[in-house]
């Protein structure tokens, strides 16, 4: 495994530098052989684009873990998105820090950014799954109502003619209201069905008074 460490000097006896993006050197260490490469940090100049150069360097070197004191949010996000774990709050001699990492003994003060990011992704995925399940249940609950609406429209158009309705609802406000109330009590069902029947009546030219009485 290759680890990139922000360092004050060009050897393993150097101290870990505080800022990953602005440290004088970056040491790329093979944890199995302890062979290392010391390179001047391409982002140490603080010029625009310095953080991007650091990320490109880490990715091109095949780094899997970054150990540093501090890593800016922008650089951190780019490293994690490229599959590189970022561990901050690291201090001490580079060689000792590597040995602690290999032994899994970092102390309680270290922050493992990559693991936190991965955990957040798992939580978000779980929330998404629950939301999808809830949506499916809601759709299953309203599906019978939708089927009933479609059947209601079809049956009404098939068996109730415009002439038959005109013979019942003559246009008289009082009689239309009375007949609408009567049909509303007979055809009482779900509010959705009442609105569907009311819309069909309006399409057939029935007065608003009759439709209102039917729905109410």
From TrEMBL:
Keywords of the record: Membrane, Transmembrane, Transmembrane helix
Transmembrane helix listed as a keyword: yes
Taxon lineage: unclassified sequences, metagenomes, ecological metagenomes
Record keyword Ribonucleoprotein present: no
Pfam families: Nitro_FeMo-Co
Residue spans crossing the bilayer: 139-160, 166-188, 195-215
Protein name per its UniProtKB record: Dinitrogenase iron-molybdenum cofactor biosynthesis domain-containing protein
Domain Dinitrogenase iron-molybdenum cofactor biosynthesis: 14-102
The species this protein was found in: marine sediment metagenome
SUPFAM superfamilies: Nitrogenase accessory factor-like
